[in-house]
Amino acid sequence: MTMEQQDPPAVLIDQVSKWYGQVIGINDLSLAIDGGVTGVLGPNGAGKSTLFKLMMGRIRPSQGSVRLFGVDPWKNTSPYRRVGYVSESEKLYEWMTALDFVTTLARLHGMTREEATERSAHVLEFVGLADVMHKELGKFSKGMRQRVKIAHALVHNPDLLILDEPLHGCDPLARTSIMSVIRELGEQGKTILISSHILEEIERITEQIVILHNGRLLAIGNLHAIRGLLDKHPHRILINCEDPRSLANLFITEEPVFGVRFPGEGQLEIQTNDLSAAHAILPSIVVSSNQKITSIENPDDNLDSLLGYLIKEGS
Amino acid sequence: MDAAFGSGDGDEEATAVVAKSKASLGQIFEQTYRPWDGELGPRWMRNYAIFRHHVYGVFTSKGHRQYHPMVRLLILIIFLASLTPIPMLFLSSFIGDEGGFFEKMWGINRYNLWGQVLGYFPRNLCMWPLLTAVVVGGMISDDRQHGTSAIYFSRPISRLDYTFMKYLSVAIILGFVIIFSYFAYYTSAIVFKAEGWAYLADTLPIFLGGMLAGSILVITYTSIGLALSSISQSRFFAAIGFLSIIYGTKLVSLLVELQFGTTFMYAMSPYDCLAHTGQFLLGIPSNYEHPVSISVVSLMAMNSVSIWLLVSRVTSLEVTRE
Amino acid sequence: MDRKGKSLFETVWTRMDRKAGAVIELTIRQLMHRISTWVVLGVGALLMALLLIFYIDSVRESFEPIDNDGDSEDNDGDGYPMGQERKYGTPDWDSDLFPGASVFIPESDIDWNDADRSEFGNKSWEGSAFFEVSWVDDQYAGEWWDSHVDWKLNQEGIPELTDCSDWELEEILEAIWADACDLGDDDGDGMTTYYVEGKWRGEGIATVPDNYYLSWGFWTEEVYVEPEPPEMYINEDGIDCFDAFILRGPGWEDSRVGCPSEARISGSHGFDDDGDCLAANEGNGNDDNGNGVRCDVQWIASNGVVTRIEADDLVDEDPDEQEYIGELGHRTFVIAVGKMAFVILLGLFIPLFLSLGLVRDETENGTLHLLLSKPIHRAEFIIYRLTGYLAISGSYVIALSLIVGLISSILGPGDQLIRISDIPVWIGIGAATTLVLAAYGSMFNAMGLISPKYGVYLCIVFGIWEFMMGSFSILNPNWTVASVSISHWALQMIDAVVLLAWPDTIQWAEMDRAFEIDSGLSVFWQPPVHTLGTASAGIALLNSLVVLLLVSVAWIFIAKSVFSRREIM
Questions:
Q1: What percent of chain B is predicted at pLDDT more than 70?
Q2: Best mutation site among A197, A238, A297 for testing chain B: the one with the most B CBs within 10 Å?
Q3: Residue B5 confidence (pLDDT) above 60
Q4: Domain for residue B321, yes or no?
Q5: Which residues does C432 contact at the CB level (< 8 Å), separation at least 6?
Q6: Does one domain contain both A82 and A36?
């Protein structure tokens, strides 16, 4: 199928809308993804899971068309041979061992039992569960469960991997190991879609992002490019220090800074149009002020504010 | 207890702050618990709230326990079906058929009073077990499945009270359909026929016997149903389990009677024990060869085992979403 | 998958095979991990054990002889059993009338319009007459309603009666009833004339008034007849068959054969051993079956199999239980257990517990996402799940039926070690139950999919319907409404299998019915109904099989079309 003259993209979403009764899940979305790791970002309820379920043929688009490798997944299960999917659902077969679980699911790809067992042991080792693969899933922690889910999605060596919130609810250690697994997979040249509502997580894995909000596509492209676009907008830097007023005097004269505020006791807020320029001058000023600075925060540099600006821009 | 009551708000605030701020040097949030200093209602008022929650739900689901509209419809249909003798009695008095067909089929006598609560077809085949299964199915299992039992057990309510109120609610709903229809049947017979005190004196003991038999039926069905509901996580198991106990034992004992000519096996069928006891209470010649005391003992055993199971299950219930 | 390892065998079919294997195995393991599965299967096994215990118990005790026609009883308490009274022609409701009791023999009478209106003699009279007495029997008395005349004899033996010599004739005729009155010696011959109305015994001349009636006769002498023991009238009239139609002719005893006769299955058989049929109807005998032969049994066969037995009343009515009830009871046990315990109980309740959540539970738990992200079609998924469920429940039911079958066929009546002919019946019961499991399984599974939350209530309502229709189908398979149920067809299937394995079951059921053996076989078993007019058990079997399979397929199809349109959240 992949040997045709023109390879269709792994994921092609064409003017897709999905609504549940009065509620809109996905609103006129068009998207094509082929190759590399792509982060799908958006707050809770943005439509990330809906998008993934549309891709996996779980639900049917109200409008538009969804194609996985050029095939409609609602009508045809054939693209699943090349897709691995990690759903957001937490429930596994608690009474099975990890190896059993992955083997059983591998056999659904038409592998023989021996083949499946061998592949499963391999992927479980790959996700770092080699030593616990004979334990029952009911005894697994959340991070281990997520890795088992990733293992089952990887067992047939798919070309496309769709991960719905794989980091959700994991402790930092588990996050790190899952992220490294995903990065490694990305390096192997697979197309990976990963959703999250935390920008920072995605940032550590990939730079290619898709931002969804209220079912609409807000932004697509390189994370830094998007942020750069946002630099044209006013940004704030919040500094906790001993004497905000004297520090303010030092900043107000600098070119990128166009205003200061004192939001609270021992706090200084700098307003700037060019975030990177402001960050460039910041260390020297701090050093020259001779003040003890307890923290420097970028309240705008998170998904919420990013979205906030994008929405304002969009409307 | 105070912690359980007052910490809700403070906790939420604390987490909210953590999520927003990036405390690079660390920060300790002051935990402020606001103890609830209201007056705790008396125990039976609290219990009554549970009871009300379950019973009112049958009539309106607004703010009360959810019964599916189909379930409520089914209860209504069964209730109306159990009232069918009343229009027949009316018809009988209307066309003045004294001692005729209607009178014989639906008039007040020992057999008809017995049949109104304990007859096998259609009441104990199609109506009461179905009603019990539908009402009792999710009574405790839903709480276990959805973790809502935690809502109860984190309040000042003892588990025994919780169980007792659940039991009472089910018994009242069943009682409303089964015993109320029986009562309505008897009283309407008196009204339609314009019977006097003498008639009342004659039939009241029989009526009370039937009422007692009906109450035993309600209690037994409730005990078995709730015990099943408490040992299962899904309403399906409870409902089907109840029906399979009622029908299964009946069918097996029937099979044994037909094949091997002994009625002794009926002692393990809840319905037949009830029917046998009811025949005794109403003074009807018994269909069964074994003595009525066996049925009575069997009923007591069934009830006590069920209630023991129910109580021990509820007291050992883990307050988590299972 | 990478395509490099694709060998010649790696076709679509082998892949489907492997997928099926994986889902079936998963389903089986899942079901085995649920306690309720074990509870249900355990209760089923317990039930069968219980029935077997009852069976063993009933086999161990021998059959008490039963008085099927009830003629060993002495209803009137005169010391003679009903059978003996029948033989002597005395009623069994009158303690005064018994074998050897004196009976009244009527001689003649004077009717209301006869010309000769006088009779002389020593008789027992009844009616109205002017009686010129030479002797009367004062002891001739009976019950008060018998209107015996009381002569009120005094010390000298002279009747002391009302004097009616100066009454008008009309007055006398009017006033005297069950009595007599003194008319005096009107003709002066020394013998007094009385007017008598009622029953009396005496010697004299009786002159009957015009328009009145008098009859007379005599009583026989009472003889002592030895009362026969009641046991004589138990099992006294067995089922008789004959090789040739020489019934009641000379030498019939020599042609008596075991029933049914192989040489002559149809035709007139039966012999009234105790003679109660021949004595009935004032000695004319019964011919209830209307075949022109009195007191016989008409056996009707087609293709060498007895299909109907029509017995005249009181012929062969009290056969020896030991001879027949063993076989009949055994067959009844097999059929009753197969129908009620296997098809209705296990067949209905196992699917309720095991199949309802086959697909629905996966949807609710969210584990369906795992399975459906694999290249497996949703319809395929349903079929594999159902196959997994059937693998457990079907093998359980078949194993259980074979175990029960083996034990009961070893214990059952007959000389052989194992009743070989039982085994096909038990296999048929297992197969019918498995088909029922498949039909209900696919139905309940579909209901769980149609309404995930409240499908169970639909299932319960359907279950009750099936339960009722199953019970009705056992009692009356001809009732058309009952055929709108799955259990009906499974029960029909058992009926058909029974007939195929034991072709003489119709005959046994007919014997059960015609000779009132009362084993219940004719209640639990009737010949299959849906034979498309051929009366062939094979066609009935095929018919039921097709219906059950079609129902299963239809429900799978419904489930599939619901499920493939279902959006999975």
A1: 88
A2: A297
A3: no
A4: no
A5: C338, C342, C343, C490, C491, C493, C494, C497, C544
A6: yes
Whether residue C568 lies within 8 A of chain A, CB to CB, comes out as yes
Return the HEC string of C95-139: CCCCCCCCCEEEEEEECCCCCCCEEEEEEEEEEEEEEEEEEECCC
The pLDDT tens digits of the residues spanning A94-139 come to: 899 999 999 999 999 988 899 999 999 999 998 889 999 999 998 9
Say yes or no: B34 and B53 in one domain. no
Domain CATH number, residue A292:
3.30.70.100
A137 and A257, same structural domain?
no
Residue C7 counted as domain residue: no
Q: Are residues C295 and C411 located together in one domain of the fold?
A: no
Q: Do B14 and B125 lie in a common domain?
A: no
Range of the domain at B25: 1-38
The closest of A219, A274, A280, A284 to A247, measured between CA atoms, is A284
Specify the length of chain C in residues. 569
State residue C223's pLDDT score.
Answer: 85
Say which residue, B282 or C142, is predicted with more confidence. B282
Q: Which residues of chain C have pLDDT under 50?
A: 1-4
Domain count, chain A: 2
Is the bond into C260 cis (omega within 30 degrees of 0)?
yes
Q: Is residue C460 part of a domain?
A: yes
Do A281 and A224 fall into the same domain?
A: no
| ipTM (interface pTM) | 0.78
pLDDT at B222: 96
Query: Who wins on pLDDT, B288 or C306?
Result: B288
Q: Does A6 map to a domain?
A: no
Each residue of A170-227: pLDDT tens digit? 888 888 888 888 888 888 888 999 998 877 788 888 888 888 888 888 888 887 777 7
* Length, in residues, of chain B: 322
Mind telling me how many Å the CA of A109 is from chain C's nearest CA?
6
Distance (Å, rounded) from C-alpha B79 to C-alpha B181?
7
Q: Confirm whether A298 is domain-assigned.
A: yes
Does the beta-carbon distance from C454 to B243 stay under 8 Å? Answer: no
Interface mutation vs chain A, best among B17, B24, B322, most A CBs within 10 Å? B24
Q: How many domains does chain C have?
A: 3
Q: Does the pLDDT of residue A3 top 50, yes or no?
A: no
Q: Which chains have 3 or more CB–CB distances shorter than 8 Å to chain A? A: B, C
Residue A295 domain boundaries? 231-314
Chains touching chain C through at least 3 C-beta pairs below 8 angstroms are A, B
Domain count, chain B: 2
Do A113 and A211 belong to one domain?
Answer: yes
- For residue A169, being part of any structural domain is answered with yes
**Residue at B100: amino acid letter:** G
The whole-number average pLDDT for the span B310-315 is 91
**B33 and B68 both lie in a single domain:** no
Flag if B236 and C468 touch (Cβ within 8 Å): no
Q: Are C268 and C298 in contact (CB under 8 A)?
A: yes
- Residue B62: inside a domain: yes
Confidence at B11, pLDDT banded by 50, 70, 90? very low
pLDDT tens sequence across B180-233: 999 999 999 888 888 888 888 888 999 999 999 999 999 999 999 999 998 887
Establish if B216 belongs to a structural domain.
Answer: yes
CA distance B251 to chain C (A): 7
Given a contact cutoff of 8 angstroms between Cβ atoms, the answer to whether C124 and C140 are in contact is yes
pLDDT category at B23 given cuts 50, 70, 90 is very low
Closest CA to C551 of C398, C351, C395: C351
**Closest Cα in chain A to C378:** A77
Report the DSSP beta bridge partners of residue C203.
Answer: C122, C135
Question: Is A182:A12 a contact under the CB 8 Å cutoff?
Answer: no
DSSP B285: P
pTM over 0.95: no
Number of Cβ atoms within 10 Å of the Cβ of C20: 19
